[in-house]
Amino acid sequence: EVQLVESGGGLVQPGGSLRLSCVASGFAFSSYDMRWVRQAPGKGLERVSIIYRGDYSTYYADSVKGRFTISRDRAANTLYLQMNHLKTEDTGVYYCATGGYYSALYPGGSGIWGQGTQVTVSS
Length: 123
Known about the structure:
This protein is mostly beta strands. Helices cover 0% and strands 46% of the residues.
């Protein structure tokens, strides 16, 4: 079964931190570019961060640059997103998916998508 399963979301106060995980199974994880995409309440999907296969080069949206760090563990088939100095505008559902910068920003497009994990930043 081809699957991506996110975890690590929750409720956190502004300025706090969370670490999201995404476990891959059923496909060759190391052969795929991987990304985090989020959807704020009432908003569209937003490209957050990408880590490419091979050289592990990265991309970050301007809104999260300097605060978030993407990484991947080949042996564990796992993608991570370390989120520091969280802001209320970071609230939303966070999805992991295969694909790079030009991959479609909707699950019906290209790539494999997880079910999402909720992140709520509120005081």
